[in-house]
Structure formats: structure tokens, C-alpha cells
Fold these 4 entries.
Entry 1:
Amino acid sequence: MNPSDYNNRLSRKERVFKQREQDILDAALNSFCSDHWESVTVSQIADQVGIAKGTMYLHFAGKHEIYARLALDFYQSLLTRLDEPLRGNGISRFRQLVGRAFEVHLQSPVYRRVTQYCEREDFKCSLKPQIAASFDQIDRDIERIVSAVMIQGISEGIFKPIQLDELILGFRCTFHGALTRFWANRNAEQSQPDKFVDSVTSYMLSPIVNQPDTLKMHYKQSTAQLQSTEKDLELNHE
């Protein structure tokens, strides 16, 4: 169902409730810009929205549910970006995929704090089953997209026939480790984000390509293919 159609079917009371919930999330996200974001209270968020503290609990059981909702909204936007069509061979698609993932993360420094917090084991254990299931579904959807790229690379003979679960684990660990380093080195990597992303992507590819020269060769080919495709799209648009 189209979101606008869904909103049109809501009663006025339901639309007000839905908008107030979004106002709470926006106020919470704004409050989390501070380095002391974890000390922000439900009362402070309620004050920003202009509602009573008790009204907050009509929407969320507490801060943990606000964290979870913000994280899920972020991951949904990430999933939407990753699920857009990819072009070229396995290496080209891998580079596009990693680039998109970094793009979404690096544009969202406040969400970074919340999503990292939501990765904590004690936080996950505190979630209601329905919310925990939503996180699990996001994980499966992202794994599906990454797996498709890996499988294509293996079928093309570009990537080594490594077990998918090992590839996914390596992908996740390297990606999140790189993100942590990026946010920690404000005056180094952050001054040249494109170079940083390219270096990390090459590092992620190096142990899974079949031969040492394959990475360079296919990088040149995939770059040429992308440039050609983009040129064709521009001509068609004109």
C-alpha cells in the first residue's frame, strides 16, 4: 500500500498520534547530538515535544524502545539504499554495495551512536520479542543482498569459492571495524572519506579475489563499464 493511501485511511485521531510519535523520535534524535546523549531523559524529550511525560509512554515504554525505533528506521533507510539495482561484474557490484553502505552511515553521525548502542548484548536481551524480530529481519535482508553479490562473484570465477557465512562474517567485521576507525580519527580519515572508503573496499576484496592481478584488472573493467553505462543514461535522458 502506498504510504499516502495508508495515511488517508487513518482517522484524524490516528494521524495525530502518528505525527506525535514522529515528533518524539525527531526530538530524541536532536537530543542525542550531544556527547552526553545517554544521559538524556524521557522528561527532557517530552519537554522538547511539548507533551507530558506520561504521554510519552503511550508511544514508547522507555528510552530503550526509542533507541530501537531510531535504529530500525536507520537500518530501513540503509536497506532501501542497498536494495537499489547494481551494475557490472562481481567486483563492481561489491564496490557499489560497500560504497552505498558507507554513504548512508557517514551521512548519519547521530544515528551511529544509537545503532552502536543497539548492538550491545544487554540491549538486545532487553528488547520485546516483536522488536527483536524486526532487527533479525533487517539482518536477514542485508545478508540476502550481500550474499547475492558474493554468489555472482563466485559464479564469475572472480571470487574464491569460500563459504558464504565466512564471507558475510568477514564483510560485517571489516565494515564495522572501519566505521569505528573513521569516527575515531576525525582529522585523518574524515578529511578524505572517498579515499578511505576506496582503501577499505580494496582491503575487503583482496582476500576473496582469485588472483592478485584480478582485482586491478576487474577494477579497471568495472570502472569503464560504469562510466559507459552512466554516459548512455545521460544520452538517453537528453
Entry 2:
Amino acid sequence: MSERALSPGLEALRLAATLAIAGLLSGLAIVGTYRLTLPRIQANQAEALRRAVFEVLPGSERMERLVWRDGQLAAADAAGASADSIFAGYGADGALVGYAVPAAGAGFQDTIKLLYGLDPAGARVIGLAILESRETPGLGDKIFKDSDFVAEFRDLATEPEIALVKGHGEAPHEVDAITGATISSAAVVRILNAGNRIWRPRLPAPEQAPAPGAAQAPAIAVPRDVERGGPVPAVPAEGGR
């Protein structure tokens, strides 16, 4: 009688123990897989960023990372990391082509991460690359699939602030909104303006720009297989509604 009364409890305990062990093993497998693949994921992200730098700074052949330190732009340490960093691009003759600025902000669906180029004076945007986007397929994803929209950021004045317009903008600081994706278009413009408010005041005068080779780490040359002036070979994250 006693054994029969305890049997359901023992059975439940056995089931709970089985589920706990299965959960533990699954968790260990997930953690192990993550640790094994993390270096490759980070390497792919770094490569996509490196390629994007050369795309948003047309004519650049070398790049160096610069950090904002002690109130000025300084060469980045070889292994140092900093959220407050940008990339300087240099031509074959060593002349500064411009700065590649990482920026991010809320889109319609999720965070949009991008990189854009500024000329040495910070007066014009000279390139745009979307690094990560989960905007709605067929609509919001046109911020990187619509070649006409992307092309508007190849010679765009930064003063006054970049403005999004419906229709056809005539002013040098105006960007045409994408039909059906106004929110995503506005998000890109908003992210650039926010980045400009932070970084443009920090840029040195063109004649005082850091020279190539100033960083402790060697400058990185442009990958041979990057299609100059073409699409950025960085694949945005999949997703959407």
C-alpha cells in the first residue's frame, strides 16, 4: 500500500531528474558551440567592417583606427578597443581621404547599424554602408537595396543638418525618402545626424589630420576583391516581420 502511494511521487521525481539532466546537457552543448564559433563570428564581423570602411571612403587604399582620448583623436592601440572610435582612410599617396564613422539607432523593426564616410573637413557625407538591419523585407530593407537611396549619400552636405524629404529634394543636404519605407529612411538620416553631432566637432582641421602610420598597429590595405564603388560585401542580418 505504501509502495503504491509513493510510486507516483517517485515517477515524478524520476521525470524531473531526467528533464534536468537533458536540460543541463543541452545547455552545455549550446555554450560549447557558442564558444567554438565565437572567434569565427567575430572575425567575419571584423572583415565586413573592414570592407565597408573602404566602400564608404572611395579612393582609400589604407585604413587606421582612431580613438577619442583625452579630448583629441589619437592612434588606437594594436589590441585596444573603444566604442568611441572611427577609421581614417588614406589614398595611395598617403593623403587623407576621409573618416568612416560607425553609428547605430532604432529603425522601424530593430536597431540599424551602419557606417558612413565623411570628407576630411566633415563637410560632406561621401558614402554609406548598412552593416546590420532587420527592417521589413521588401520595404525597409530598401535602405541598402535601393541603389538610388544609397547613392544619395555619396555627396551629401552635412550643414544644415541632413533632411529627409518626400518627393525630390533639391538642396545639397536633402535626401529623398523611400516610398513605403519612410520610417526606415528617416531612421538612417536620424542616425547620421546624431553621429555628426558627436564626431564633426572632434575632427581636426584637414591640415592637422593624423598622418598614415601614426597608429601602433600597421595600417590595413584595401582587400583586392572589394568591388570599388559597388555594393558593400557585408551581409545584413536576416529577419523582419
Entry 3:
Amino acid sequence: MQINLYKPKVMEFETLDVMYRQVCDIIEDKIHYTQQDKGVARLLLSADNPCLPIYKKLAHSGIIDWQDIELYQTDEKYVPKTDPNSKQKIISDALGVINQTAGSYFFDTSLEINTAIKNYNQILDTLDGVFFDQGIISVRSDGSIGGLFPGGNSIKHHDNYAIATQSPDSASGPNRLSLTVETILNTEELYIILTGESNRQVLLEMIEGNLPATEYPARVLLTHPNVTIFCCFD
């Protein structure tokens, strides 16, 4: 797949404390501005560990009106929502303000997986234009994003907004529900959070690597013109 990449804005911090404090201030201001401009801000959230401290800090914001926030998730594991590995549980536990929002739109994993995908597609089909205002995501060491993994057809074009995917450790068929890469990219501003020394290579591969997007899905994120990568390799 031949893709044209934009150069992202990269902000590297010396310590995690400084990074999370400043990143939270930046994102908080962006959300507040969106609420003033549009009334409601739609947030796209990943449940990856590097993102969770941001959610915990945002939950205590003094300027975000959570009643004017809509939450969406990048992906979900096909487990009950009460399962410790449930991504909606992880996000909900980190934020602690889910019941105060205008809407929290998660995959319904109580349904058969294809039905859950169909329902989420119907939810997203009610949106128009740019679906999400701010997206907060991370990239794993293999270049996977959300439920989109290297190899297979997960990052190719799909007619739906959400699809069922299969993680590399699954031998029993699809076990993930994920937005397509095109849906993730339909976000006004994307924030990528990278932490730990091991993720230095992730940053290098995203920006300077030669792997095709089919082998390193995160490279597709750089087809978005408004990406900021916040990183701390401490």
C-alpha cells in the first residue's frame, strides 16, 4: 500500500510526571475550546496503558463540562463489560465520570460479536462530517493500533466503520471489535501517547521506518495532517 505521510508534531518530555501534566493541560484546553465552539465534544479513546493517566487527570478538570462530552472507543475485547480486561471497564474506571457524560458509546459485548459490530456501525452512522474532535490513542511495539494488527486485511478499506478482528494470540477466530483505520482517521486531532524506552523504536519506525502499513499499521496514522505524538522514554 503506497501512502503519503505527513510529518507529525513530536513533543518529548524528560519525565512522565511532566509529560502527563502538560499533555493533560493541552488536551483539556482543546476539549474546552471545542465545547465552546460546538457545544458538544466527541472524544475517541483507547484503553492502552499510556493513555490512562490522562483520563484520570481529565476527570478532575475544572473547565471540562462532562455533560457536553460524548465518548467513543477505538476497540474492545470480546469479553463481558465487567471483565477486568474489558476496555470499556478500563476507560470507565480511569475516568470515573461516565454517568455524567452526554453519551458513552461502547461496543455491547453482551451480543453476538457480529451483532455488536452492526449495532456500533449504526451508532456511528448517525454522525456526520468529522466524527471525533479529539482522539487519544497509543501504539504497541508491533505497530498495532486499537484492534488493528499487522498482517491480514484489518487496515485495508472496509465499507463499515467498525469490524471484527483477530489478535495474533487467538486461534479461535475473531476476538476483537475495532474501528477501521479510516474511522480512526476521521478525527479532528489525533494525540498519540508513547512511554517507556521500548517505544523509542516505535517512534522511529513510524516516522523513518520502511515497513509497509500492512506490517506496521501505525504508519497509517501519519496520513492524518493533524497528529501530535507525546512521548517520554524515561
Entry 4:
Amino acid sequence: MRITSIRLLTLSALFTTILFSCAREESLELPTVPGTQGGNKLQGIWDFAGIYAETYTANSATMGGETQRTVTTSNYTTKKNGGTITIDAVKCTASNITYLVDTLAHSLIYTNGVLTDQLDWNFQFSVSPMSSTAPYRLIGTDSIYLEKGLVSYPDNNGNPLPSAPSGARISWSGDTLLLRTSLNYSSTQATAGVVVSVVQRGFTVMKLKKRG
């Protein structure tokens, strides 16, 4: 029963680790996108080519006089990616974005600081086609800031998590735009009547391929 409860808490927190949060890194020179000369090099129509993510979540809770801590790690590349993102001078428009996550997560469970169990479990969810629009601004030559969330993610009940502003580092791989977002977040959540402290770290890289 204890392991089941901790696993449910881990699921809830793991979904939130793939939310975007604003992060700044060292400067990066922005190359020209093939076929684009000058101006805002992000403007155009981009096919959504998926997301790569590495996540770390640590949950701590006290139940029945025992302090339990679960550390969960995961990395994945989304499958069955679809949809487009159109970027103009002031906004990003996502159309019919869809993808599937199907991976294995690893959890370490501690009781009063002692490792008591570990488990691997299937981490899977799919996203039905979604569309949204978010105003944005460029930060220097290497970052973009979205004033609200552009691609949403579900919680473990299949409900969309709240949209939030986000920032990402820009880089390129040929004609593919890479948007890397770092995560460093802590919170206190109430889950099933238990107060849980959550620390989340990791990063995501969204891949967008320029249409010819």
C-alpha cells in the first residue's frame, strides 16, 4: 500500500517535470536558417518533430510517522509526432500538435533516509491533436520567451496541466530548430490528503523542422 501511494505521487510529479520553465544560459551565436537571409530567422512554418526529455523528480512526505522519499528519473523521445508551429513577427501558433510518450521510469524509494525499494515502471501517455497561440519575444540572439504555454501536457488523470509562460535556448541542427528548456523547480503539493514536497530538475528539447 505504501509503495502504491508513493508510485502515484511519483506519477503526478513526473508529469509536471515536462512543463517548460524559463531558463537563461551562456550566449550562443545564432546561425542563419538555410534559405533565410536576415531578419527574424524563426519566422515560417515548422513541422513538429518531437521532444527529447530528461527528468529528475524527488518527492518527500511524512505518513504514519515515517518520512518517505521517492527519486524518479526518466528520459525519452516522443513518438508519433504530428502538427505544425507557425512563427510570425509577434506570435507562435501551434496547430494539431500530437505525440506519444512510451518509456520506462526508474524510482528509488527511501524510508527515513534508508533505501527500501526500487522499481521500474512503464511511463506512457498520448496527446490528442491540440492547437494554441502564444505571443513571444526574442531575448538577445539565443533565446525565446513565450508569454504563455504553447504545447500542453496531461496529468496522470489525462487532464491538461495549466498553461504557463516559458523560455527556451535556441540552436540549430541543419534546418531543424532546437528549443531547449531547463527545469529547476520546487513546490509543496497536496495529493490524496498528504502534503508532498517536490523538487524537479531536468530539461526538454523540442525539435521543429523547417518546411521547404
